[in-house]
Amino acid sequence: MLRRVLAGSRYLILLAVAGSLLASIILLLYGTITIVKLAIELAIHPIFTTEDAKPLSVACIEVIDLFLLATVLYIVALGLYELFIGSDLPTFPWLVIETLDDLKVKLIGVIIVLLAVTFLAYVVEWKGSNNILPLGVGIGLILFALGFILSKVDTNHSPEEPGPLHEANGDS
Asked: Any stretches that span the bilayer, and where are they (predicted)?
């Protein structure tokens, strides 16, 4: 009885899949609406100066930030579905997720880009008054740590190969 309950409980992950997918859709829609509003505003008030380019650049970078976060949430939704429910989703080969390490690698890759874009937005807004070095060093340390984690994750696995858990239990 407990075995059937535990086996069926994996479908509770569908809540996380649906929540992640919904959050991704919301961010994608919000970002798209923001870009359309920016384009309309630019068409109505066509002032093309370097002074006006900075806020426009920052707004575009912030929308890219939203799109990247939406991508993270989408990858989480796909990854959780593939790991816990079934791997029958039609996805690109580079998006196939067979282990939690696969999901981590994909997420870390997007997080690295997200941090770089966030720092870029800060640099574009920077007026020279604050010291930008601590922020750059902080983000650099995070990027270094994430890169180190990526270098330690084994992505050369085969689903048929037993993992450390199976080997420790004597399963084959």
From this structure: 12-36, 56-84, 105-126, 132-150
Condensed to tens digits (0 to 9), the pLDDT of residues 124-141 reads 777 777 778 888 888 889
Torsion-angle region of 128 (φ positive above 0: left; ψ -120 to 50: alpha; else: beta): left
The span from the CA of 98 to the CA of 62, in Å, is 32
d(CA 98, CA 82): 7
- Alpha carbon distance 79, 99 (integer Å): 9
The residue with tokens 């190969």 is 161
Residue for token pair 């407990």: 2
- What are residue 37's phi and psi, to 5 degrees? -60, -40
What confidence tens digit (pLDDT) does each residue in 26-43 have?
999 999 999 999 999 999
pTM of the model: 0.72
Are the C-beta atoms of residues 61 and 121 closer than 8 Å to each other?
yes
